[in-house]
Design a protein that fits this description.
This protein is α+β, with helices and mostly antiparallel strands. It has a single domain, classed as Alpha-Beta Complex (Aspartate Aminotransferase, domain 1), CATH 3.90.1150. The chain is built from four helices and six strands; from the N terminus they run αββββαββαα. Strands 1-2-3-4-6-5 form a six-stranded antiparallel β-sheet. The longest helix is centred in the C-terminal third of the chain and has 15 residues, at about 90-105.
C-alpha cells in the first residue's frame, strides 16, 4: 500500500511538536506515536485514529468514517476516516483530539 504524503503533512501540522510524539513507517503507511503508543496513521486508503474501546461510537455516526478492519476483524476503538472526513479540518482535529485524549491515558512504552 502506498503512503499518502498529503495526509501525512496534514497530521504533522496538526499534531505539532508535542513531547513524546514520534513517527515511523507501519501498516503500509506512516504511523504517529505518543509515548510509544500508536495514536493515528496516514495511509493511502485513509486516516486511522485510535479512539479507544467504547470511545468510537460518536465518530462512526459521521459520514466518511468507518470501523477499522484488519485481516477481516473489526478493531474496536479504531476508526478509518476517508478523504471527505479527514479533509475537513475541524473533523480531523476532533478525531486527533479524541485520539490524543485516549492515548495520553496509556502507560508509556
Amino acid at each position: 500500500m502506498a503512503r499518502d504524503a498529503g495526509l501525512e503533512e496534514l497530521l504533522k501540522e496538526q499534531l505539532g511538536n508535542r513531547p513524546g510524539l514520534s513517527e515511523k513507517a507501519m501498516f503500509g503507511g506512516w504511523g504517529f506515536l505518543l509515548n510509544g503508543n500508536l495514536l493515528c496513521a496516514a495511509r493511502e486508503d485513509g486516516m486511522l485514529a485510535r479512539l479507544g474501546k467504547g470511545n468510537d461510537d460518536w465518530a462512526l455516526k459521521l459520514p466518511g468514517i468507518i470501523p477499522m478492519i484488519s485481516r477481516g476483524r473489526h478493531m474496536q476503538g479504531w476508526v478509518r476516516a476517508g478523504a471527505e472526513a479527514y479533509g475537513d479540518d475541524a473533523l480531523r482535529g476532533r478525531l486527533l483530539d479524541a485520539a490524543l485524549a485516549y492515548v495520553d491515558t496509556l502507560p508509556t512504552k
